[in-house]
Design a protein that fits this description.
about 80 residues, alpha+beta, 2 helices, 2 strands, elongated
Length: about 80
């Protein structure tokens, strides 16, 4: 994302997420990538994410494909950090 467009993108992201969820969020721009932070949404989805991960691992261990998830948004609420 070009730097001159990031401020407007971040503002739009914050407004849309707040409109859809009712929770305020913070955005951060690091090396051209925009990250969104919302502890309220994380807390609400943390347990569900753990259940989904356990179901997927259980299926793979049985030789089955992982279950497909119902998603109403094309957004991932988590980020993985590999260092």
């Amino acid at each position: 994302m070009p730097g001159d467009q990031q401020d407007q993108l971040r503002k739009t992201i914050r407004a849309l997420i707040h409109q859809r969820t009712g929770h305020p969020v913070q955005t951060h721009s690091i090396n051209g990538t925009v990250y969104v932070e919302c502890p309220a949404i994380y807390e609400r989805r943390a347990e569900q994410g753990m259940r989904e991960a356990a179901d997927a691992i259980g299926a793979v261990l049985k030789g089955e494909p992982p279950p497909l998830l119902d998603q109403d948004w094309a957004i991932s609420w988590t980020a993985w950090d590999v260092t």
